[in-house]
């Protein structure tokens, strides 16, 4: 049987056994320029063929939508002179401009918001999928024994289970977040208060890609350890929450140093529209900090200061200029965590199985 | 066994001090030592929970032993040079239900680069009238077994491990499939280890026997050698205990039904007295050992692990 290895079409055109013929037909002669997945990667893609097509369709639709949104929003903003939007509640807003702002918010604002919601929950979806249907289900139903008793070791099997979603994330989510960031950046900050940079921080820039990578790695590790489809998905749900909280805490504990403002009077928690408040509190005479002092209801800020023998207030915040520095720092941290968890999953498989 | 398929210098499986411990059930295999020469068709028998499936999982590279060592063709079961040469069909025959038969074979082709034989696999499913575009999930149990066996044989393995593969087939199909399997195995001198409860299906098909009970090896060796070491003795006997003539032999199992007395002996020379003596069938020998768990193990010389390997494991 020589033709079985003949997936290079140009080499073997003469051996015409029926078995080889079926094999060649399966290989698919359409789009010969397209790189074809081989080995374990082929298996992973074939197993999740339906999901892959749905994801691809969704990606295409969202990309088209976001590009259209960008051009439509830019046109609308220019036509109605909304580049420096007025505050709708303010008195300086002309009536017809107010109507235009309202219209913009209810139509384009919502569309932009939904794309953000999707990107925000995409990491969780990816994590659940890898943990449950991709990894744990094989261990639960026993099909892993069929895969591992071909010429593929457990470690290579897991590597394929990691590599396929990672490539999908690097390709698909990168495009998606780039398109959303591009569409988002055309909107002036004051026009859509819900789309200020600190409100949409998780759904623009490189961060969605890093968060998806972390979810894939965490999902694989959980799937391996829990070995039950539903259980693994439940644990992944909890683990995503914990990881989110951990990384948020690390970010706020000074991943990028915030700007600190000192004042005698208590500062408001909302500064300029572009500022992201991290922490407010009291400064004591020895230079110590009391974050969010618990002063009871009915006590004035002034009384609160004297109660704590404090000198005054401090406020840590990120101005809008910190956006990209903060984005790349958190994305880097998240990606590093993803690499660590993926390495842990591979190490576990190597240790637990031959 | 013909001279062509007899490969005395090669060892398919070899174990010394082999043990597997489960967290709840304790030791599933303990201190197992045996050797299976390459090219043999070996029956792996034993009661339920004796450790047959565990032993096959070790050989297939699905789990690691907790004690001792098992070598497949002289290497670790998980070695990149060994894993491609071993095929395994598990008890529940796991296959991807959403795959068609053709997809399943395509997987065999993708995961066994350079080894996959599409013709062998297709021949086996064609003989069972299974269309290649049928979804595995829609097939009957027997058809799924056929696909699982085809996937295993398509890999062209040097060692084929089968864990109760025919249990859900009707006798006619079982017979036909066994014949197909043995023909493929004989053609390539494939070593086969066949775990089974159906002792009659092993008779005639297997030339080697490995019997495990309670996690230990009880019998190992050429079926012929093992059978000729035993004698089935029948006759009338009314005395207490075991007849005195048996003192020079080892009594594996003795049963009295009324005045009719039957015993399986490991004989040392001819049996004296007025007894009807015959060589037992494979089934009779195995059943007697299953009923007598206290009988000492018998490992034929060809089934002894080589001293070099034993020393190597003990030194480690």
Automatic annotation (TrEMBL), chain A:
Record keywords: Membrane, Transmembrane, Transmembrane helix
Transmembrane regions listed in the UniProt entry: 52-71, 111-136, 157-183, 203-225, 230-248, 331-349
Residue ranges, annotated region (Disordered): 1-25
Top-level taxon: Bacteria
Protein name: Uncharacterized protein
Protein source organism: Streptomyces mashuensis
UniProtKB/TrEMBL annotation, chain B:
Sequence ranges assigned to domain ABC transporter in this UniProt record: 13-239
One term of GO molecular function: ATP hydrolysis activity
Species assigned in the record: Streptomyces mashuensis
UniProt-recorded name of the protein: ABC transporter ATP-binding protein
Coiled-coil annotated spans: none
Classification via InterPro entries: AAA+_ATPase, ABC_transporter-like_ATP-bd, ABC_transporter-like_CS, ABC_Transporter_VariousFunc, P-loop_NTPase
UniProt keyword terms in alphabetical order: ATP-binding, Nucleotide-binding, Transport
Source organism, top-level taxon: Bacteria
């Amino acid at each position: 049987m020589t033709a079985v290895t003949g997936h290079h079409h140009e080499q073997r055109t003469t051996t015409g056994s029926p078995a080889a013929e079926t094999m060649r037909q399966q290989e698919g002669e359409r789009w010969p320029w397209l790189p074809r997945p081989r080995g374990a990667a082929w298996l992973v893609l074939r197993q999740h063929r339906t999901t892959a097509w749905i994801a691809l369709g969704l990606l295409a639709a969202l990309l088209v939508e976001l590009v259209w949104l960008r051009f439509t929003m830019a046109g609308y903003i220019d036509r109605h002179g909304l580049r420096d939007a007025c505050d709708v509640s303010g008195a300086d807003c002309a009536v017809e401009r107010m109507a235009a702002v309202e219209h913009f918010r209810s139509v384009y604002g919502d569309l932009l918001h939904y794309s953000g919601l999707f990107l925000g929950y995409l990491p969780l979806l990816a994590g659940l999928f890898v943990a449950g249907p991709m990894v744990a289900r094989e261990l639960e139903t026993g099909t892993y024994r069929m895969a591992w008793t071909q010429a593929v070791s457990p470690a290579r099997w897991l590597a394929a289970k990691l590599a396929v979603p990672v490539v999908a994330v690097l390709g698909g989510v990168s495009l998606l977040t780039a398109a959303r960031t591009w569409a988002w950046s055309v909107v002036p900050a004051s026009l859509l208060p819900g789309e200020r940079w600190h409100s949409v921080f998780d759904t623009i820039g490189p961060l969605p890609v890093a968060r998806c990578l972390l979810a894939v790695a965490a999902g694989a590790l959980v799937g391996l350890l829990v070995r039950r489809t539903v259980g693994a998905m439940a644990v992944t749900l909890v683990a995503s929450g914990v990881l989110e909280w951990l990384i948020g805490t690390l970010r706020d504990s000074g991943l990028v140093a915030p700007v600190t403002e000192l004042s005698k009077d208590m500062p408001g928690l909302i500064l300029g529209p572009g500022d992201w408040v991290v922490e407010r509190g009291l400064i004591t005479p020895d230079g110590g900090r009391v974050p969010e002092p618990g002063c009871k209801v009915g006590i004035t800020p002034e009384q609160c200061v004297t109660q704590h023998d404090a000198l005054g207030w401090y406020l840590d915040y990120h101005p809008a200029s910190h956006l990209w520095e903060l984005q790349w720092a958190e994305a880097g941290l998240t990606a590093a965590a993803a690499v660590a968890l993926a390495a842990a999953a591979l190490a576990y498989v190597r240790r637990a199985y031959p | 066994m013909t001279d062509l398929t007899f490969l005395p210098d090669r060892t398919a499986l070899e174990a010394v001090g082999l043990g597997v411990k489960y967290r709840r059930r304790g030791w599933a295999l303990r201190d197992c030592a045996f050797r299976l020469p390459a090219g043999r068709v070996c029956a792996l028998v034993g009661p339920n929970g004796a450790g047959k499936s565990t032993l096959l999982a070790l050989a297939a590279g699905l789990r690691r032993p907790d004690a001792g060592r098992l070598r497949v063709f002289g290497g670790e079961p998980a070695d990149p040079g060994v894993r491609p040469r071993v095929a395994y069909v598990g008890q529940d025959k796991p296959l991807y239900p959403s795959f068609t038969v053709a997809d399943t074979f395509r997987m065999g082709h993708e995961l066994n680069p350079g080894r996959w034989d599409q013709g062998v696999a297709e021949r086996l499913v064609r003989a069972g009238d299974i269309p290649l575009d049928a979804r595995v999930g829609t097939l009957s149990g027997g058809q799924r077994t056929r696909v699982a066996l085809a996937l295993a044989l398509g890999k062209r393995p040097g060692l084929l491990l089968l864990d109760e593969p025919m249990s859900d087939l009707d006798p006619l199909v079982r017979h036909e499939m066994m014949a197909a399997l043995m023909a493929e195995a004989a053609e390539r001198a494939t070593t086969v280890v066949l775990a089974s409860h159906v002792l009659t299906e092993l008779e005639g098909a297997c030339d080697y026997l490995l019997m495990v009970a309670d996690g230990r090896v009880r019998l190992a060796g050429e079926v012929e050698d093992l059978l000729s070491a035993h004698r089935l003795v029948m006759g009338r006997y009314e005395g207490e205990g075991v007849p005195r003539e048996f003192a020079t032999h080892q009594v594996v199992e003795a049963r009295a039904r009324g005045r009719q007395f039957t015993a399986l002996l490991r004989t040392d020379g001819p049996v004296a007295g007025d007894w009807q003596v015959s060589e037992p069938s494979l089934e009779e020998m195995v059943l007697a050992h299953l009923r007598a768990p206290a009988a000492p193990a018998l490992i034929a010389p060809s089934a002894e692990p080589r001293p070099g390997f034993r020393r190597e494991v003990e030194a480690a």
